[in-house]
Amino acid sequence: MSPETIPLVIQVDLIRQRLGAQYAGDPESAVLGYAEGGLKEHPAQINPEAQALIRSLNDRRFPVIVTTNTSRSGSAWKLSLEEAGGFRVTDVIASTDVGACKPDPRVFSEVVRSTGVPAAAILHVGDSWVMDVEGARRFGMGAALYRGLSQHYWEADEAREGPKLKDSSVPCLDHLSEVVGLLGLT
After folding, report:
1. The pLDDT value given to residue 35
2. In angstroms, rounded to a whole number, what is the distance separating the alpha carbons of residues 38 and 36?
3. Does residue 108 contact residue 119 with C-beta atoms inside 8 Å?
């Protein structure tokens, strides 16, 4: 059995055993509490550009799926994002629910399953060349690189910025408002 197929509860329990730690309750409740925890105390901080884009897509009844490499569940993120952002998302695909992180194809497969839309008809927008652009393209989705967050990273990162000059077929966005045009919704 590979690490990707071992349920989260078992993975955490194996780590707990190696550390010699004890749970305050049963392992499943402890792991689920961790996976859901913290979002009420520390709600999602939403990029104002993302908030405006999602609201615009909501107004057009366009489905929005969020993918995230995180230890918290997609349902917890969905609730937190919708409460903090004042918008709707169709689904949040979280790596902890899938058992794999982007760029693993299982994450992108979940997007297709969740929407019922063929991969070729989906545009994946992300801030990492390797995780988002390469992962989505390998799965047959369209992809765009959002560079608007790069000022928040400590240093330039090839994995995030990617070879943008080498592949002109991938739109590189400085502002998320550009997504509406890419989708042909202007």
Report:
1. 57
2. 7
3. yes
How much of the chain, in percent, has pLDDT values that exceed 70? Answer: 75
pLDDT at 139 over 50: yes
Model pLDDT for residues 43-61, shown as the tens digit of each residue = 677 889 999 999 999 999 9
Domain shared by 61 and 138, yes or no: yes
Length of the chain: 186
Domain-embedded: residue 43: no
Q: Within its chain, how far is the Cα of 168 from the centroid?
A: 24
CATH number, position 89: 3.40.50.1000
Mark whether 69 and 124 lie in a shared domain: yes
Q: Are residues 63 and 32 in the same domain?
A: no
Do 76 and 113 lie in one domain? The reply is yes
End-to-end CA, the chain: 48
Lowest mean pLDDT of 4-8, 13-17, 133-137, name the range: 4-8
94 backbone dihedrals φ, ψ, rounded to 5°: -105, 140
